[in-house]
């Protein structure tokens, strides 16, 4: 590291560096000595000021041996002149004494020589020591490699020089390297032969990384003060035994407290008693993860008049608990369970036998529910109106016969199956339940094809208001567009031809011809990437004026012109346009300005939307814009 310049900042130095500084040895002195040595000194006996540094090892030995006697001054004094004459009358009887200055210099040399030896010994032990010819203090500096034998500066670029090694003439460039040892310069071929890269830039020394602790980043806002809801929940949970002192809380407030407990997953066997009452007709727990089987049994015992029971995340609900529900809840007509993994077939069958008045049965994620359970459900629950078998792993064509044996349903949800139902099975189901269906969800069934949509739902649906068609990969754009056009005007010629080939009763066909399905209120076509402009145009023509919730998530083929047509759906409250790549701020501005009731918009994956010019609408929640433009 170069120490040239006028700054006074100095870092820590080694003992050898300190010794060289005190001795007055610097790069300029070294360069002058090298040039003098190559030219040959005119007088071999001429004394040289300062210690010799011809080689690293020899100089240290000489300095060590010569440090025992005082070094003569460069300018002889009067005593030295008399001593040279051989006779000194004043010092015949007195021993020779050393001057204090020489003594101090000698002692300083001893200390620095010892420090120098220790430094070299340490460097040799660390493996960093090299021979004296490669010592960094005796080798040519970076500036000396551009100097010739006489110490002059490098010849100008473009001039001709003779190589010091091969004597071939070459042109001097900015990358020409001086010969080592001097004099002269090396041509490009000799530089390459010596293994030197003239184009290589000096590598900057790596800085040592400080041992600092890694910072932990969180992706949520850390609250320094607890929220009012958390304080209330904690207070209610702490004084659960004295909760009667609050008086009548009300069903609405109870539901809000239940939601607050679910957000913190704080509902347990102790504070669950807050929601129990013998007069309860309906009870819903949004997160029952921490409720144990005894807690579920207590729930049934303390709420004997329940008619509607809804339990989310009830993974600890077992077969004995379901049997307890069957015996302890005689008025139960509606049950919704999310995650009853542990309930076995026998418990389901016994539950259906004991509940002939069951009107709504909804389960999600029940891997043990099979066709025998569905058969018992059809035999016992003759008044059933709502059926949801979502994410049932064993759902297949074996369920078709027992499901067709059920009374006509208003709600049918068979989404996310493990196996799935084929096209013929769907046509049979819709022929049985299509005329009374109000909500229908065949999402993620590969067997739900365009023929099932047209010949099943399109032919028999009369009261349908909510349709969920998510992830139906067998549906084509033309199939869905034809279905909505048929619902709009019932003039599809191909449908009429197929109707004549059907074996249905002619009288029923005439009755159906005068009945049309009303416009839909809820529609989801998410994750059907083959659907495009034809589908959107047809559905807006049929249901645009009555839609309140619409999801077009993943319909990447929609064009800007088709998306602008959404402004005719003036009654929309929730709209999902996530991953529709053609959506931008201009489209959103036209849509939002035409929908006064719009409350929520989802725009995940819409990289062209920035929220400029439309995101400031009061009361509108916006999700997915980066940065999030949610404003209220």
**What's the overall average pLDDT, rounded?**
78
Rg calc: 48 Å
**Which structural category do the helix and sheet elements fall into?**
alpha/beta
Largest sheet entry: 13 strands, parallel
Tally of helical runs: 21
Strand residue content:
5-15%
The number of strands is 17
The parts where pLDDT drops under 50 for at least 5 residues are 1-5, 41-104, 127-146, 214-222, 491-514, 628-632
**Broad shape:** elongated
Question: Spatial order of the strands in the main sheet?
Answer: 5-6-7-8-9-10-11-12-13-14-15-16-17
Residue share in helix: 25-40%
Cα-to-Cα separation, first versus last residue? 61 Å
Pick out its properties.
single chain; 632 residues; alpha/beta; 13-stranded parallel sheet; elongated
Fold and architecture overview:
A 13-stranded parallel β-sheet has the order 5-6-7-8-9-10-11-12-13-14-15-16-17. A two-stranded antiparallel sheet has the order 1-2. About 25% of the residues are buried. The model is unreliable at about 1-5, about 40-105, about 125-145, about 215-220, about 490-515 and about 630 (pLDDT under 50). It is built from 21 helices and 17 strands. α10 packs parallel to α11 and α14 packs parallel to α15 (about 450-460). It is an alpha/beta fold and about 625 residues long. α13 links the parallel β9 and β10.
């Amino acid at each position: 590291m170069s120490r040239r310049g006028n700054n006074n900042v100095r870092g820590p130095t080694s003992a050898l560096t300190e010794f060289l500084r005190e001795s007055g040895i610097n790069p300029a002195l070294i360069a002058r000595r090298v040039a003098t040595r190559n030219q040959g000194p005119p007088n071999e006996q001429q004394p040289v000021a300062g210690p010799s540094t011809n080689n690293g090892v020899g100089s240290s030995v000489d300095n060590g041996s010569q440090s025992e006697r005082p070094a003569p001054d460069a300018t002889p004094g009067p005593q030295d002149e008399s001593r040279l004459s051989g006779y000194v009358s004043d010092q015949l009887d007195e021993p020779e004494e050393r001057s204090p200055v020489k003594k101090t210099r000698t002692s300083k040399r001893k200390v620095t020589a010892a420090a120098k030896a220790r430094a070299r010994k340490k460097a040799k032990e660390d493996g960093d020591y090299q021979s004296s010819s490669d010592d960094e203090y005796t080798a040519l500096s970076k500036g000396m490699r551009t100097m010739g034998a006489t110490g002059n500066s490098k010849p100008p670029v473009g001039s001709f020089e003779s190589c010091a090694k091969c004597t071939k003439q070459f042109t001097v460039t900015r990358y020409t390297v001086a010969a080592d040892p001097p004099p002269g310069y090396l041509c490009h071929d000799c530089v390459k032969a010596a293994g030197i890269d003239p184009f290589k830039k000096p590598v900057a020394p790596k800085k040592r990384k400080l041992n600092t602790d890694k910072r932990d980043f969180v992706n949520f806002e850390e609250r320094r003060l607890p929220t009012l809801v958390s304080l209330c929940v904690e207070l209610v949970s702490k004084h659960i035994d004295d909760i009667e002192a609050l008086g009548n809380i009300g069903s609405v407030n109870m539901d809000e407290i239940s939601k607050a407990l679910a957000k913190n997953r704080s509902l347990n066997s102790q504070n669950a008693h807050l929601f129990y009452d013998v007069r309860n007709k309906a009870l819903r727990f949004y997160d029952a993860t921490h409720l144990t089987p005894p807690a579920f049994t207590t729930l049934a015992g303390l709420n004997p008049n329940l008619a509607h029971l809804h339990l989310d995340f009830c993974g600890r609900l077992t077969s004995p608990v379901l049997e307890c529900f069957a015996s302890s809840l005689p008025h139960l007509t509606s049950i919704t369970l999310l995650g009853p993994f542990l309930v076995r077939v026998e418990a389901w069958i016994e539950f259906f036998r004991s509940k002939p008045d069951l009107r709504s049965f909804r389960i999600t994620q029940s891997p043990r529910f099979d066709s025998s359970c569905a058969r018992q459900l059809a035999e016992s629950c003759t008044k059933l109106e709502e059926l949801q078998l979502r994410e049932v792993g064993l759902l297949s064509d074996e369920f078709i016969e027992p499901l067709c044996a059920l009374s006509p349903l208003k709600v049918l949800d068979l989404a996310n199956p493990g196996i799935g139902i084929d096209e013929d099975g769907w046509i049979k189901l819709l022929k049985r339940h299509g005329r009374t269906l109000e909500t229908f969800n065949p999402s993620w069934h590969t067997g739900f094809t365009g023929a099932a949509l047209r010949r099943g739902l399109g032919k028999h649906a009369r009261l349908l208001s909510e349709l969920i068609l998510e992830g139906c990969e067998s549906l084509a754009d033309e199939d869905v567009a034809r279905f909505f056009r048929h619902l709009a005007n019932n003039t599809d010629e191909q449908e009429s031809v197929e109707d004549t080939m059907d074996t249905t009763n002619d009288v029923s066909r005439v009755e159906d011809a005068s009945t049309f399905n009303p416009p839909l209120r809820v529609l989801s076509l998410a994750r059907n990437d083959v659907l495009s402009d034809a589908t959107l145009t047809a559905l807006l023509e049929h249901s645009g004026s009555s839609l309140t919730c619409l999801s077009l998530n993943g319909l990447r083929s929609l064009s800007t012109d088709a998306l602008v047509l959404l402004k005719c759906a003036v009654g929309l409250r929730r709209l999902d346009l996530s991953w529709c790549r053609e959506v931008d701020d201009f489209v959103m501005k036209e849509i939002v300005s035409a929908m006064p009731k719009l409350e929520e918009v989802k725009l995940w994956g819409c990289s062209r939307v920035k929220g400029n010019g439309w995101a400031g609408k009061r009361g509108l929640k916006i999700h997915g814009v980066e940065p999030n433009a949610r404003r209220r």
